[in-house]
Amino acid sequence: MYIPSQFEQPDIEAMHELIRNRPLATLVTLGSNGINANHIPLHLAPTQEPFGVLRGHIARANPLWRDLASDVETLAIFHGPDAYICPSWYATKQEAGKVVPTWNYAVVHAYGSLRIIDDAAWVRTQLEVLTQHNEAAFPEPWAVSDAPEEFTEKLIGAVVGIEMVITRLIGKWKVSQNQPSQNQHTVIQGLNGSGQSAAVAMAALVNA
Predict the structure, then answer these.
(1) In DSSP terms, which residues pair with 143 in a beta bridge?
(2) Which of 23, 76, 166, 186 is most enclosed, with most CB atoms within 10 A?
(3) How does strand 53-59 pair with strand 159-165?
């Protein structure tokens, strides 16, 4: 990923926060038919220094777990907020007109070797942890144990676990750092004024 120095995100905790808040990853692997991409929620378990561990599961019917080049790195891409930036928002547009549109975004690339775990007990634990994380904000959180045991056991048998110890973690926050402060201020106003949730989230990053 091309990262100009002003857009580099060196803060591991900031990258971890993005992963926790937006866990649906684009998981890029190499198999016998070439590059493949799957979209899978991955839970960050910060048990392995310095970058953490990603855990999830895939359908047993998914050929990924049987057709994986184990000697090649896997890439998990996590997408944060993104938004179109209208050049009319720039305060400097009135001065010389030398402004153009762009797109702001935050993204994290996590690299490591993907391990397949075909173990029902491991999968059950992973499902419980993933569910607890995603249900925590609800007033009456659902738990795996809420469903009938026979039902969940059948579903657990239909999936396999995946785990990736992160060996490289790269973040890019393209959030108007290359603009003068007056443009950053008016970009924040423009994003907030759009009323779109993604734009408001981007405004918060520009303002950080």
Answers:
(1) none
(2) 76
(3) antiparallel
Q: Which two tokens stand for residue 164?
A: 């990736």
The answer to whether the pTM exceeds 0.70 is yes
Domain range summary for the chain, segments of one domain joined by +: 5-207
Full pLDDT tens readout for the chain, 208 residues: 999 999 999 999 999 999 999 999 999 999 998 999 999 999 999 777 789 999 999 999 999 999 998 889 999 999 999 999 999 999 988 777 788 999 999 999 999 999 999 999 999 999 999 999 999 999 999 999 999 999 999 999 999 999 999 999 999 999 999 999 999 999 999 999 998 999 999 999 999 8
CATH code, residues 5-207: 2.30.110.10
Tokens (6 digits) for 71? 């000697």
What gap in Å lies between CA 14 and CA 186, rounded to an integer? 25
DSSP 37-72: EEEEE-EEE--STTT-EEEEEEETT-GGGTS--TTS
